[in-house]
């Protein structure tokens, strides 16, 4: 055999052998090494299974949990996160599981949660997004790191705090009034409020942050919701990277098309602002969130300039978060008030005492103590997020554990909110009086026992905006209606991006106006 022929045979064989070694290292040796390392420190968990990790088990548990009917109770964790509930009971408060080949340390002890989220040494960066989540969120505030994050956070802080928040109040009130005008046709009838609040919150974030209306942003919301559905069904599906590069599934193709269409819609909004300035119709791009982004996009200083891609991703993040967060919070709060008429009446008396029959005003919203207690208890029972994911950027110690680099941390911050050791045996009951003396006293000064908006430097920038919008909407509803639960309601909370009612929330409205 000639030397050339040997080379022709040897090179492909060598490449194949190298690829095989790397594959076995990534998919077998490294997972087993990490598993052994954490087992030696007392961290157990379901065993790693070749290629798939624990994804098949998780998918099966979730399917089984959702297939069973649920009574009207607030112990929702075994339903929305059945795998975490099962494995915490089996392996302890902190355990190791596997998202495919990726090690994922699930932590639910408040002290460890606090240590990770408040870490100032940047040892726990955000995990690199999956393909579908990158199409949904991109490089928005929720995902970027370092100087980019600091710059975006300043923009968000300016847009959603202080005087800017106060200036948003008229737009929020106008949006709620539009919704309530429609509700006049449903007095004495059943109405599905989750959908109603979806339209309301979409209108509010469109008006306050982007200077438009829901109808103008309707296409963006529709496409974002489709992307969220695709991203949600991709969770716990095992993907081998090189296969995705060779062959694109229908979900990948659809998500790419949706992301491109969203970019086109946002660019039209940007051009509108630019044209107004060029034509002399406005002397600036505006003081709302979109205006601040467009101004940064045109900044001549490279340090402060925002790229077009970053601008689009920031818009996607705030469209999604601004709508989804308050939508769920309002819907679950109304459900709980419909069930607990005594607390509904207490909240109504407080609203009438502070505002009378007038619309809420910013200076007095802070006086709504009972409503704040109700909102906090709703957030405790029906949290805004399923968990927070971080990556271990380098070998680091938390508590008594030494963690290797390049594994994931799943911070199950919902677990402490349903922990009887922290809240008592009535943990699954709706009892707003827990928060009568504030969050710190309710949690016994344990910050990680209740952190629906996160804690530490990366806590939610829109927290004040979300709670203000919720208080305004609830106040205006309670001034006009009593709410009772419809017999048609089926209790079925599910996990999408946050906790949502699978079949909506149906209530009956009764007007407080005797002339209606």
UniProtKB/TrEMBL annotation:
An annotated Gene Ontology molecular function: monooxygenase activity
Sequence positions that bind heme: 460
Keywords from the named record: Heme, Iron, Membrane, Metal-binding, Monooxygenase, Oxidoreductase, Transmembrane, Transmembrane helix
Membrane topology classification: Single-pass membrane protein
GO cellular component: membrane
Cofactors required: heme
Keyword Ribosomal protein: no
Main location: membrane
Leader peptide range in chain numbering: none
Subcellular location: Membrane
Family statement drawn from the similarity comment of this UniProt entry: Belongs to the cytochrome P450 family.
Name recorded for this polypeptide: Cytochrome P450 CYP749A22
Organism annotation: Gossypium hirsutum
Chain's gene name: LOC107927670
